[in-house]
Amino acid sequence: MKIRILTIGQKMPDWVQTGFDDYFKRIQPFVQTQIIELPMAKRGKNDSDTDIQKYCIQEGSSILQALKPQEQLIALEVNGRHLTTEKLASTMQNWMQDGQDIALAIGGPDGLSDEVRQKAKWHWSLSDLTLPHPLVRIVLIEQLYRAMTVIHNHPYHRA
């Protein structure tokens, strides 16, 4: 199993990169993980709803183009499925047993396109709260790492 994080947005603040890199290094011994940063659509100051929809479609197209044929797409969004750490660990263990490669899609500031939502095998919510786009990267990689430590009986996770 391989995990790829397909995310809209590049050049994150240093604090985001530092936090992400820490957990990214930690998870590598457990599962090969990669992040693919895709460009965000150029936005104006007074964009209309039509403009915003156009940006989502453009960003969604870049996510779908980056998706590999054998990957199962999971869309990260606030209205998605809620998982406990233990349920995430169990889900990831099933992915590993099935040999499934996973692509986790993080949309831009305006969310994911309908096309990405429809293509996704399922939808996952990290929180009922709306999280700042850069923070999602850190929360996601930490939760993936935590789930892997549960699977491997590593002492990091204390329930």
Automatic annotation (TrEMBL):
S-adenosyl-L-methionine binds at L76, G107, L126, S127, D128, L129, T130, L131. Keywords: Cytoplasm, Methyltransferase, rRNA processing, S-adenosyl-L-methionine, Transferase. InterPro entries: Alpha/beta_knot_MTases (IPR029028), RlmH-like (IPR003742), tRNA_m1G_MTases_N (IPR029026). Its main location: cytoplasm. The lineage of its organism: Bacteria, Pseudomonadati, Pseudomonadota, Gammaproteobacteria, Moraxellales. Homodimer. It comes from Alkanindiges illinoisensis. The keyword S-adenosyl-L-methionine applies. Gene3D superfamilies: 3.40.1280.10. Belongs to the RNA methyltransferase RlmH family. It is found in: Cytoplasm. This is Ribosomal RNA large subunit methyltransferase H. It is an enzyme of class 2 (transferase). SUPFAM superfamilies: alpha/beta knot. It catalyses: pseudouridine(1915) in 23S rRNA + S-adenosyl-L-methionine = N(3)-methylpseudouridine(1915) in 23S rRNA + S-adenosyl-L-homocysteine + H(+). It comes from the Bacteria. The keyword Transferase applies. GO terms for molecular function: rRNA (pseudouridine-N3-)-methyltransferase activity. Its EC number is 2.1.1.177. GO terms for cellular component: cytoplasm. Specifically methylates the pseudouridine at position 1915 (m3Psi1915) in 23S rRNA. It holds the Pfam family SPOUT_MTase.
